[in-house]
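ok so heres the complex, four chains, lmk if somethin looks off
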Amino acid sequence: MSDSAIRPRKEFGKTIAADITHRLREEIIACGLAPGEPLRFDVLRERFGASFTTLREALTALAAEGLVDAQEQRGFRVAPVSRQDLVEVTDARVLIEVELIRRSIERGDDDWEIAVISTLHRLKRIEQRDPEHPLRDPEWKIAHRQFHQALVSACGSATLLAIRAELFDRAERYRHLSANFRPRPRDKAGEHQAIMQAAISRNADLAVQLIEAHIRSTSDNVTKYAGHLLDAE
Amino acid sequence: MSDSAIRPRKEFGKTIAADITHRLREEIIACGLAPGEPLRFDVLRERFGASFTTLREALTALAAEGLVDAQEQRGFRVAPVSRQDLVEVTDARVLIEVELIRRSIERGDDDWEIAVISTLHRLKRIEQRDPEHPLRDPEWKIAHRQFHQALVSACGSATLLAIRAELFDRAERYRHLSANFRPRPRDKAGEHQAIMQAAISRNADLAVQLIEAHIRSTSDNVTKYAGHLLDAE
DNA sequence: ATCGGTATGATTTTCGAAAATATGGTCTGG
DNA sequence: CCAGACCATATTTTCGAAAATCATACCGAT
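and the predicted structre for the whole thing:
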């Protein structure tokens, strides 16, 4: 029996449910499934090749993360977007990210510095390759996520890191929402570089200031270029 | 056909899964299910009268809340407790609760004041009735939760309130853990009264200071009287 | 005695059928 | 023409059997 004949069903987690959760999450973040769109089991069953109950488990998990909206007895839908929600996510991110940056700068060791520098380096490499549409490049998305993750990774609180990760995902969905309408990306490379330098040189106040501006300007860009999408809901 | 013959299966949510999620959550918080204890489906099936998949959905939701630990392919267990986790939960609570109190004091209207005053009044009534073992009284637990909820309810961020609620639950489990070893409750009534007065008089700095002390002293009490339970894990 | 493999029992995970519930349209009486 | 009851259909929710996976004990070879 050759292995190649067996189609691997679990690319990510060990269980199918965890795998589907991951794939659904990515698709919702990338707006492949539109905000507010009903998630019907027949459709999902065909698209993801899993049974009712397995899909249900995945949707329940994503509902707890705030990416899916569970309407009891009336199924699930992709979590809607709104100006209010964007403001809440942005404010919460600032509150938590600022705290975690401070703690990481306070506690970060050599490994932390290396992680910050190397993830930024990888990010810049990818940006040089295709500077026009970074959000459409899956590799850029991963590298961008990993750089910001590295910045706060030395904070010492798994609890706050988990909360931060959920908020990051919810914010990334808004970035995707506006990506198609944004004329050209602003100078993110420079911002990331400045944040890295402030962090490595242990200048906490500056790093905090740059991170807050980074988060808020991203949010402002969404309002500016995708504001019309936030009212329809 | 008489209604009395039908046993109501859904006391809380509309779906059985939501109901089981709620009951399991309460039981884990009250330490009726011990930290680290394996959650085997056979046992849960008998205890809660639901099928594998329904239980699985409930456990998945609680895993996302941090009350259950999902070990892929090896089932679920009640989330373990540890000094580290207690410190993380406490710090995260302080960070968020402080922010929400400030916002509520800033934004709270008449209804907010009424909610704060009336929930405190109810709490004190219940305390007078049985001042010895408040945590064993389900009514006190509910009233206590509602008072603290009322304090932050005017903050304007459903996102942060949801995060706060999860952290509150995780902290309450630690309180239950130490309840059996604590000699006598400290003067919580006085602390709550002072917090209420600071909030209603819009003294944000004082309210923040009192809330932080309240949260940290609760946590310290757990370490003091249930520290031995935190090392075993 | 130790290691590696393997059979066995226990447990979790997944599936699709069946039950429960919601939705939408039709009919009837006012 | 409208409101409300009723039926038919679409969809979700729940169930227990079946498949997959893990843990353990046993065995034989080195």
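quick notes: Residues 204-232 of chain B form the longest helix (29 residues). thats all i got rn
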